[in-house]
Write a structure and sequence with these properties.
single chain, alpha/beta, 5-stranded parallel sheet, 4-stranded mixed sheet, 22 helices
Length: 437
């Protein structure tokens, strides 16, 4: 489990964040980066001709997502798995992209998590280097994402099922009406074409899903595919708000897409007015909506305090409190930590890497002592060289018919400068000895 608070930010927060605020974010949070945020940052490249300074802005925003973070799996993949019956937890656990489960020559199963391509790409954007393919991708994304949302598709399905939708007077009334409709048995069959159209699900896949639904006795959609239902409910709330409470906006699709990733984090930070109004209705009780401006103010204040410390004081503070912020009831970040953690996990001393270990997976006559650091690197190389499990083997693993993975490793590329800021007890010599790229 990640000890830092797991937060997801939208572009409205990332855009106005300074580098020192991003460094403070690294100290207290693990940033869950959804693909929509990466795409939104790149989409600004379409303004390069009329605003040459936009490249500098993209570089700055890239820095803000290249620190203590993980890229989460694209929601389309999770949605597809949900519809075929392979649900993933929706309890705030980070769902990483680039996860590869493999079996080593010795028969042990392990999981490697790495996003080399994405990591290298973001670091390249920091250096203001872009390919022609990325410029084309930016244009395609902007064109696709700016398509207007319309409530008519939803209103028509509601009417076909024999129900009326009264114009809501406020957000609470909107959500109550949506939830009441989604509980109606007669509307259930009409939910599939709505979901398929919004998320471009191909016809053969739609047939497989409907066949599964029929085979299972046509259960309520919420039970049949919980994550898909979560996305559908978000679609209903966001789109039907346009009936009376909001005007259509070119950013509607992009803002709505962030919501699909809410089950992957503990808190979501945004400065968008519609997010502030509607997201709280889509959060679990153990999640928090964070005002983006308040977050940045607190990051700025904490970074100023950190910069005022000597190197020895920083090392001591990081060792004693790890990812916990200084105690201060007036601090938003401390209140978030108090709510979601409220316990300090002791730091693992760097010296543990020098401790001697034995690989007990080897035959006794082949066992040899090595440092724990060498042991970790050896296991990493074994995983990299291992054979990835087939889809059938993965299904058997998911169904609990075989033993779960016994080894897991997550690799994230980060600049040396960023690493030294994140871990004050490390030196450039430490990084050289550890073979950091």
């Amino acid at each position: 489990m990640v000890s830092e608070l797991r937060i997801m930010l939208d572009k409205s927060v990332v855009r106005g964040m300074s580098n020192v605020q991003a460094d403070a974010l690294d100290r207290y949070f693990f940033q869950v980066v959804p693909p929509i945020l990466i795409n939104e940052i790149l989409a600004d490249l379409t303004k390069e001709a009329e605003k040459p300074e936009i490249v500098k802005m993209i570089s700055g925003q890239s820095y803000r997502i290249s620190g203590n973070r993980g890229i989460t799996e694209d929601y389309h993949t999770v949605l597809a798995h949900s519809l075929i019956g392979h649900e993933v937890p929706m309890d705030g656990r980070f769902l990483p992209a680039g996860e590869r489960t493999a079996r080593s020559e010795t028969g042990s199963v392990g999981t490697m998590i790495e996003t080399n391509l994405e990591d290298r790409t973001i670091l390249r954007w920091e250096r203001r280097e872009f390919t022609e393919g990325e410029r084309q991708r930016a244009r395609r994304f902007r064109s696709f994402a700016q398509r207007p949302l319309t409530p008519m598709m939803y209103l028509n399905k509601i009417k076909e099922a024999g129900f009326d939708f009264e114009r809501p007077k406020d957000d609470g009334e909107l959500v109550e009406a949506v939830d009441s409709l989604l509980r109606e048995r007669k509307l259930q069959a009409r939910l599939f074409p709505l979901l398929s159209r919004e998320h471009s699900i191909p016809l053969p896949s739609q047939k497989l899903v409907l066949d599964r639904w029929d085979k299972e006795g046509r259960p309520m959609f919420e039970v049949f595919a919980p994550y898909a239902f979560f996305c559908l409910r978000a679609n209903f709330i966001w789109s039907l708000s346009l009936v009376n409470l909001d005007r259509p906006d070119k950013n509607d699709r992009k803002d709505l897409e962030y919501i699909y990733y809410l089950p992957r984090c503990e808190m979501f930070g945004s400065g968008d007015e519609k997010h502030q109004r509607l997201v709280p209705f889509l959060l679990r009780d153990d999640q928090t909506f964070v005002d983006g401006n308040e977050l940045k103010e607190d990051l700025k204040r904490l970074s100023e305090k950190w910069e005022a410390l000597s190197q020895e004081e920083r090392i001591r503070a990081a060792s004693q409190r790890r990812s916990a912020p200084p105690e201060d009831a007036n601090s938003l970040i401390f209140r978030l930590w108090k709510k979601h953690r409220n316990q300090i996990n002791k730091s693992i001393p760097l010296q543990v890497l020098d401790a001697q270990a034995v690989d007990s997976s080897q035959p006794s006559e082949e066992e040899s002592q090595m440092s724990f650091g060498e042991f970790i690197r050896m296991k990493g190389k074994q995983l990299e060289a291992s054979k990835e499990l087939s889809s059938e083997e993965l299904k058997t693993l998911r169904d609990g018919k075989t033993d779960p993975p016994t080894w897991a490793m997550r690799k994230t590329m980060m600049s040396k400068e960023r690493i030294l800021k994140r871990y004050p007890w490390l030196t450039a010599d430490d990084l050289e000895k550890s073979n950091f790229d």
